[in-house]
Each structure stands twice: as structure tokens, then as C-alpha cells.
Amino acid sequence: MAKSVRELDVDDVDVAEAWARLTSEPDAILIDVRTKAEWEFVGLPDLSSIGKAPVLVEWKSYPDGHINPAFTEELASKLAATGATKTTNLYFVCRSGGRSLAAGKAMAAVGYRACHNVAGGFEGPADTEGHRGTVAGWKAAGLPWGQR
Do the Cβ atoms of 100 and 74 come closer than 8 Å? Predict the structure, then answer.
């Protein structure tokens, strides 16, 4: 019997561990599921120093916030183009960890067996002044990133 999305195991890894695994595992892939607007205006993880680039597929669209109905098919196609298999370690990142967890569970539901959520995301939670990227997450950890 197939497992429901709720029963699928997608573990949380913090940003430092995700970076370490992306660095040490040649086949590991970072998947950024934020919106095109976020990629353009907030920035992207920069994996060029380890010879990689994040795979970009929106989980939800902006500004309407609808879940991308073709997400799993789009991502599976992009993963196949990289040579990834259903056992390749996939690290999902969004702004703070919610959308990436849902995206990882969706891919686990279609048979990908090594899905990991990057807890804290790219920007983490807002600080006391309402700004992101200073408390936790990829940016706050000082991991490489840039803007297009």
C-alpha cells in the first residue's frame, strides 16, 4: 500500500549541515522552491564554489499563492536532466522552511527516497524589526549567495 504524504519521512537539516552535505556529496542537489520574484529580488544560494547550481522550480506562484500543479513533473524533468535518480540526496530550500517541507513531501510521494528540508530556509524568520536574513537561515549563516 502506498504511503500518504503525511507518512513520508522528510528530515530537517540545518543550513550548515545542508552546505556540508552539498559540498561533500558530489551528486547531492539543492532545490530552491521559492518564487521567481524571490530569486530575482532576494537572491539565490551560490553553489559555484562547489561546482554546482541550485535547481529552481516554484512550489507556489506569486502573487496568487497557488501551488504549482506541475511541480513534481517539472522537478522530475530537471532532475533527470542532471542525472539524478530517485535515491539522490535532494535538499529543498524556501524562505523559512515551510514550502520546502511540502515540496520535499510531494517528491517523496512520487518515489524520491532521499528528500531533506533545509530548516531555516534561505532567509529564516523575521527579526524583532521584521527583517529576514539576520536571525537564521542561509544568509544569516554567512553561506554563499548572490543576486542575479
Answer: no
Q: Mean pLDDT, the chain, as a whole number?
A: 93
Count how many Cα atoms sit within 13 Å of the Cα of residue 125 in the half-sphere of its side chain: 3
Structural domain count, the chain:
1
Strands 145-146 and 44-45: antiparallel
Q: Which domain holds residue 106?
A: 5-146
H or E element at residue 40? helix 36-41
Torsion of CA 123, 24, 58, 14, to 10 degrees: -40
d(CA 5, CA 12): 16
For range 65-90, the mean pLDDT: 97
CATH code (residue 96): 3.40.250.10
